C-alpha cells in the first residue's frame, strides 16, 4: 500500500489540545527571552496553526548550558536505568503516534501515512538506543609490540 501525496489538510482544531508552543530548556517550557513568536502555517492552506516562541541567541546558549548539565547527570545513571527510561520514551511515543503524526502533517504538509511512518522510525531508534545502553562494552588487547595491554572503556 502506498501513501497518497494529496492527503486532505489537517485543521488546527484537529491538533492535540495543549500542544506546547514555548521552548523546552532544562526540562521546563518557557517563552523566548525576547518574548518573540512566529506563526506556524499549514503549507496546504496557509492557515495559522499556532504561534510559537522564536528563540534567540541567549535562548540557544541557555539550551546548551542545560544540555551540558543534563549530560553530566545522565552519564552517572546506571545503564539498566537508562535503558528502561528510553524504553518508556519509546512506548510513550508509540502510544501517541497519531497525535504526533497529525502535527508533522499539519506543519510540513506530508501525507499522514508518511508522518506515521516517520514517528515509528524515530521511536524505533529510541528503542534501539535503549537496548544498546546495557551493551556498553570496552576493548582489551595487547599493543603491537606485545609489551603492554590496552584497555578501552566506553562512557556515555
Compute the CA-based radius of gyration: 21 Å
What summary fits the major beta sheet? 2 strands, antiparallel
- Our measurement of the CA-to-CA distance between the termini, rounded to an integer number of angstroms, reads 40 Å
Coarse morphology: elongated
Say how many strands there are: 6
**Would you tell me the structural class of the helices and strands?**
alpha+beta
User: What multimeric state do the chains show?
Assistant: single chain
Residue fraction in strands = 15-25%
Number of helices: 4
Give a verbal description of the structure.
The chain is of the alpha+beta class and 156 residues long. It has two domains: 21-76, no CATH class; 78-156, no CATH class. It is built from four helices and six strands. The strands form three sheets. It has a two-stranded antiparallel ribbon with strand order 1-2. A hairpin with a 2-residue loop joins strand 1 (23-25) and strand 2. Mean pLDDT is 90; it is low at 1-5.
Keywords:
single chain, 156 residues, alpha+beta, 2 domains, two-stranded antiparallel sheet, 44% helix, 16% strand, disordered N terminus
How is this structure best summarized?
This protein is of the alpha+beta class and 156 residues long. The protein is 44% helix and 16% strand.
Give a topology summary.
Blueprint: E1 23-25, E2 28-30, E3 37-41, E4 48-53, H1 57-74, H2 79-95, H3 97-108, H4 112-133, E5 139-142, E6 149-152
Antiparallel strand pairs: 1-2, 3-4, 5-6
